[in-house]
Design a protein that fits this description.
Number of strands: 4
Order of helices and strands: EEHEHEHHHHH
Radius of gyration: 16 Å
Structural class: alpha+beta
Distance between the termini: 44 Å
Shape: globular
Strand content: 5-15%
Number of helices: 7
Number of domains: 1
Length: 162
Amino acid sequence: MSPGKALLIRTDWPTPPDRRLPIFSHANVGNLFKEIQLWVSPDYTPYRHAWKRTLGPAEIEGKVLHHVYNRRMARLRGIGYIRLAPVSRRANSSSAYTEQWGVDLFTSEYVARFAKHNLRMQFADLGDLLVMLDISLGGGVQDVFRIGQNFVEIPGRRPPQV
């Protein structure tokens, strides 16, 4: 689409989802598995315009485009592209605390471990998945992440987090 700045990606999911995982019954799970996705460089700024031009305005009407991986963390880690996803302003704004937390925990040891794998893209972390489901993270990270952990674990393997 825009070499080095924005990519349209058509997904090819190789295996069917594990329907035992509660996340697949969430009303907004479709946000995680869009067939056509827009990924942008962390420094690319006209991403809303790019979305409208390539995917149309309907899906983002009344929503903001969430960088499914924090742009500052992507730059620090050297990740070349970040997926965009339409979410409510409430959910998008609620992730600022956890994003800052990630930046604060960034260490040279972490960079070395990450670089060893030569990754240029990262899909998401648990916080990003929750925001894509339109769940507000808020400042009380642990409470929401306990709920998120329940979404991605097979019920009965351990007691649910409350």
